[in-house]
Amino acid sequence: MDTFRSFADFQMDVLREVGNIGAGHAATALSKLMDKPVDMLVPKVRMVPFEEVADSVGGAEAIVIAIFLRVEGETPGNLFFILTLESAKKLLKSLAGIEVVSDEGYTDMEMSALNEIGNIMAGSYLSSLADFTKLNMQPTVPSLAIDMAGAILGYGLLQFGEMGDQALLIDTKFLDGKEEVEGHFFLIPDPESFPKIFQALGVGAP
Amino acid sequence: MIQDNLIKVGMADLNVAHLTGVLKTTGLGSCVGLTLFDSTAKVAGMAHVMLPSSDIAREGTLNIAKYADTALPEMIRQMEKLGAQVRRMEAKMAGGAQMFSFGTQSETMRIGPRNVESCKAILNQYRIPLKAEDTGGNFGRTIEFNCETGLLSIRSVQHGVKEL
């Protein structure tokens, strides 16, 4: 685990670029779907204590909508696409013309639409990354959950749990300026994936 | 629900309380919130168990609160310091969900149920009766354990609050 703390700046830059490429393509996909510009922030690449992983989406108890898929292949990891409930409503409205009335649960139609949005977003994130790195990355079928952020993201930390109490995550936030649709991509590569990512992008492992 | 005597238990963390206080851990997904209580001594403990067994640990310094097989002995030890006795202890637990249900065969997918099984096996070793549990399902839970009453309150998005 100590090796992670000693990642050099240029290695962190590479990981940031990994987030940039993936989320950039996903943001483009979303922008096309919504037919309006979507901005994204420079990804944050951080070694974060487990406790704090959920903080960027409002804390462990904040209720969020998450699309999760496991990345399999050469560089396994976990990919989460996370929306606040408010953002999800706005997305549904602008994409599918669905007005969510009730706060108590979503209808099948709404869930299905959300699942599909997540599917497209996560898929374009991952495929652009695979193209760029020439690494074999295969997504599992995405799965959707509406629940506490801590409970959802905790699942993505299990592989890190065996190594320590912190995880390296690549967090990209995107926003649609006007409607304030806010979403996050969390890419949490498994610990053993880092050397392969670095190698694929032409920088030495630490 | 906000209490001034709230004692926070983080992820892969454990804590104990004596006489008063409410132990709380948030956002249990596949993790298990394991509580112990000695009602005579009024000593309570709570662990946020993340993984079933320390056998798989690859970390330098072992965080004993993280694994079922190491968290329980440590919790007992800390509770005994406060006057609790193992033979009087009773356990309750919540969590161990499968947050995402899709068909990969990987063992990681089953980590919730495995955490539950492991906690039970270790409680059994110490002959601590499991008084109540709210485990499994596919949803997250936040739990609070009251050191005065021994009541475990469980909150989830879909099912509201219930008490064990």
TrEMBL record, chain A:
It holds the Pfam family CheC. GO terms for molecular function: hydrolase activity; methyltransferase activity. The keyword Lipoprotein does not apply. The keyword Transferase applies. One of its GO terms (biological process) is methylation. Residues 10-45, 109-144 form the CheC-like protein domain. Keywords: Chemotaxis, Hydrolase, Methyltransferase, Transferase. InterPro entries: CheC, CheC-like_sf, CheZ_family_phosphatases. PANTHER family: PROTEIN PHOSPHATASE CHEZ. This is Chemotactic methyltransferase inhibitor. The lineage of its organism: Bacteria, Bacillati, Bacillota, Bacilli, Bacillales.
TrEMBL record, chain B:
One of its GO terms (biological process) is chemotaxis. Keywords: Chemotaxis, Hydrolase. GO terms for molecular function: protein-glutamine glutaminase activity. InterPro entries: CheD-like_sf, Chemorcpt_Glu_NH3ase_CheD, Cytotoxic_necrot_fac-like_cat. The keyword S-adenosyl-L-methionine does not apply. Pfam families: CheD (PF03975). It is an enzyme of class 3 (hydrolase). Belongs to the CheD family. This is Probable chemoreceptor glutamine deamidase CheD. It comes from Paenibacillus mucilaginosus 3016.
